[in-house]
Amino acid sequence: MSKVLHLFEAYGIEMEYMIVDRETLDVMPITDKVIETLSGAVQNDFSFGRIDVSNELVLHVIEFKCNGPQKDLVRMQMDFQEQIVAMNDFLKKWNACLLPTSMHPWMNPDRETKLWPHGLNEIYASYNRIFNCRGHGWSNLQSVHINLPFANDEEFGRLHAAIRIVLPLLPALAASSPLVEGKITGSQDSRLGFYMANQRRIPSIIGTVIPERVFTEADYNKEILHKIYQDIAPSDPDEILQEEWLNSRGAIARFERQAIEIRVLDIQEAPVVDFAIIALVVSLVKSLVSEKWTSFAEQKKADENELRVIFKEASEQGLDFKIHNAYLLKVFGESSPLSMRQLWTKILQALATEDYVVKDFVAPAERLLKEGNLSSRLLKNLGENPSRERIKAEYKKLAQSLAAGQFYA
Length: 409
Known about the structure:
Blueprint: E1 12-21, H1 31-39, E2 45-48, E3 51-55, E4 61-66, H2 73-91, E5 96-99, H3 109-112, H4 121-131, H5 136-139, E6 143-149, H6 153-166, H7 170-174, E7 179-180, E8 183-184, H8 190-195, H9 217-232, E9 251-254, E10 259-266, H10 271-289, H11 296-299, H12 304-317, E11 322-323, H13 326-331, E12 338-339, H14 340-351, H15 362-371, H16 374-382, H17 388-404
Antiparallel strand pairs: 1-4, 1-5, 1-6, 2-3, 3-4, 6-10, 7-8, 9-10, 11-12
Helix pairs in contact: 2-10, 6-10, 10-15, 14-15
């Protein structure tokens, strides 16, 4: 029997990358071949050094994840980077490499999508039948997931309340998808634009992205999960999809493993940046749970519809988005509008010298806030209306950043 973990005793991290041709950077649907060659069989996941590797919905995406909850984020960053280097070396067999960012800059999903055809294929086939997964919101998105444990209903309620407030702040920090099909979209986090729309056929699956105000397992099942299962039932008569993971809110409760999974972070150019963001997010959630900024009672009042507006606008405008929402400003002791950059800078300064995990990641977190999120740095280097060759040149630099474990400047 696995040990019950209390709040912030350990973390589970999942990170997704594209497999692309080393020269052209076009997507390569070879994840099954890679897994089979490495592990001896086509399987959904296997141990790869100190982390695990698994498939995703489409054949050009591969996921790295820690093999069980772990406490040391510094060690995890090194483990992920080490195995990314090992995977890149192995991918030379196909003249392939890993590419970061949360969307491929020119992939055409109608032509290039190839779904995973093995193992849990009945789940993927059901998704495809109901939602048609040949779209960017299904086949062209790479993200980071943070799993935070809770031991009981009291801990779940406090964790859920804190995460709901943090969610709208995350796109500004982590946006890495300014291009779709070779064009600048005008949104710094294009992935989240597709994410918010790709299950509109059954709206209850994603709700407002920000979870509803529910703070016990019984209420969560009643208000969220049962509604989702009821709404999808006519399209899912065999109940293949009626599980907790069907819920697509920006953070979802996983009661079977007693954790809440945060799902809205874009993947960055290298684990050094991802883990700076992860550490900052974890530290902020922990500080809210401890009522550093405001009381648990006040946190429970956060309106998901108001938070969604901030989430959407910040995903488009990034760190320059100015917060006017009175509730959110009050949470952090502010009365006048301030930008996401200013708010995150205040948060980092407040948490960096205390007993939070971000203290080990201050330098990369400060650099991110100073130089801008990955989308803004990409856009600065690309200029207006960039050519395919210009885009390819910059994304090759991103692939090099990933391999070297360095910032893209």
